[in-house]
Amino acid sequence: MAVIPVDIAGHPYEVRVEAGLLAELVPNCRGLLRKREVAIVTDANVHALWGEVIEAALRDHGHEPHWRILPAGEQTKAWDTLAATVDWLLELGIERGDHVLALGGGVIGDLTGFAAAILKRGCGFIQLPTTLLAQVDSSVGGKTAINTAAGKNLVGAFHQPALVLADLAALDTLPQRELLAGYAEVVKYGLIGDADFFAWCEENGAALLAGDARAREYAVAHSVGHKARIVAEDERETTGVRALLNLGHTFGHALEAETGYSSGLLHGEAVAIGMVLAARYSARRGLMPKVSAERIARHLEAMGIRSELSTLQLDCSGEALAAHMLHDKKMDAGTLPFVLMKGVGQAYLDKNISLDDVSQFLGEELAG
Ligand code: NAD
Ligand code: GLY
Fold first, then answer.
1. Which residues 6+ apart lie within 8 Å of 175 measured at CB?
2. Which sequence spans correspond to the domains of the chain?
3. Which residues line ligand 1 (CB under 6 A)?
4. Probe target for ligand 1 pocket from 22, 54, 107, with the most ligand atoms within 8 Å of CB
5. 367 CA → ligand 2 middle, Å
6. Residue 242, C-beta contacts closer than 8 angstroms, at least 6 positions apart
7. Whole-prediction pTM value?
8. What is the topology classification, in CATH, of domain 2-173?
9. What architecture is the 176-366 domain classified under in CATH?
C-alpha cells in the first residue's frame, strides 16, 4: 500500500492507495467511524456496483449503514441536492466529530465535502474516490463546491477530509471513457512540474489504461504525492503555487461552459484539450518549443483522448469562448491568470495575458 501524507497545517491526513481498501473499509478508517450509524453519500451508478461491498464491510464490523443515493452526473452538484443532503445528515443526527463517507467520483466528493463543511459549521468526512480523476485530484486538497446557474464550482469551501482511501479496484468497474478523462489529470502532474513523470506516462500510459496494477498504483500514488506537496504549500491558492493545478482548466472551463457542462464533454476531456491549448498558446508566445506542445497532443491522442479543439465542432467564435473566461472564479481585478508552460514540466502562472490575444488564438484553433 502507498500511504501519502498531506501535511496541511492544523489538519494533516493520509491518502491510502491500494486495491481492496473498500472491502476492508472499517479497519482502513482507523477508528474514525466512532458510532454504530454511518452515513454514506454516493451516486446510483456507484451504489449499484459497490453498494454491497460497502454494506458488507460495515455490517461485518457492527455498523449500520445509512445511504443517500443521488443521481449520477454533474447536475447533482446543485443547491437543492446540497440542501436535501444537509437536511438528511441533520435528521441522522450527525455531529461535528462524526465522519460522513463520500463514495464516488468528483461530483459526490465535492458535494459531500461541501455538505460536511457547512453542517454544524463543519463535520468530518472521508473521501472514498472511485474514479481515476477523483483519486488523483478531486479527493485530495479540500476543495469542495456546487455549481450554480452562473457557472461551475462557484459556491464552495475549503474543507479537508480526515482521510482518503483510493481503492484501485474501483477503477476496474469504471467505464473506459471516464478512465481516459481521469488519465488527463495524471498527465497534468507531469506537465506542471515533472518532465520525468510525463516521460513515464508516455512509456506506461497504455499499460495503466489497460489495467496494469503496478502502473496504476505508481501513477495514482505519484500524482497524489505531487498534489499533496502543492496543497501543503498553498492550501488556499493564495501564493500561486496551487493555481498551477489549474493547467488546462481555464481553456477547459470555457469549453465546458460552451457545451453546457453536459456529458458530451467530460471535465477531464475538457482539461485534456485545455492543456494542449495552453501548450500551443505557450508555443505561440515563444515560451516553449512547438515540438513540445505537439508532443503533449500526440501522447493524449495515442492514449485515445481527444486533444484537438476543432474535433468538438463547436458552432461559436474565439471571442465567444474567451467570453466564458470572464466568469472564471480566478478572475482577479479584471485580469485572468493563465497557467502556461516554458516546457514540459515547467508550468508557471502568467498574469499578463490579453483576452483579445487568447480569443484570436482560439479562433484559429477552432478552425483547425
Ligand atoms: P463523476 O463523479 O461524475 O463520475 C463520473 C461517472 O463515473 C459518473 O457517472 C459516476 O457514476 C461513474 N462512476 C464513478 N465511479 C465509478 C466506478 N468505480 N465504476 C463505474 N462507474 C463509476 O465525475 P469525476 O470525473 O469523478 O469528477 C468530476 C467532478 O469533479 C467535476 O464536478 C469537477 O468539477 C470536480 N473536480 C473537483 C476537483 C477538486 O479539487 N475538488 C478537482 C477536479 C475535478
Ligand atoms: N484541482 C485543482 C485544485 O485542487 O486546486
1. none
2. 2-173, 176-366
3. 43, 45-46, 49, 72-74, 77, 104-108, 110, 130-131, 133-134, 137-138, 141, 143, 152-153, 170, 173-174, 178, 181, 267-268
4. 107
5. 31
6. 141, 230, 231, 233, 234, 235, 236
7. 0.97
8. Rossmann fold (3.40.50)
9. Up-down Bundle (1.20)
Instruction: Give, as one character, the DSSP assignment of residue 103.
Output: E
Residue 257: name the closest of 134, 105, 155, 149 by CA: 149
Q: Residue range 11-17: average pLDDT?
A: 97
Percent of the chain having pLDDT more than 90?
93
In angstroms, rounded to a whole number, what is the distance separating the alpha carbons of residues 16 and 214? 15
Distances (CA, A) of 249 to 99, 152, 207, 242, 348: 31, 12, 26, 13, 14
Residue type, 31: G
Write the CA distances from 208 to 16, 215, 217, 288, integer angstroms.
19, 5, 9, 28
143 counts as catalytic: yes
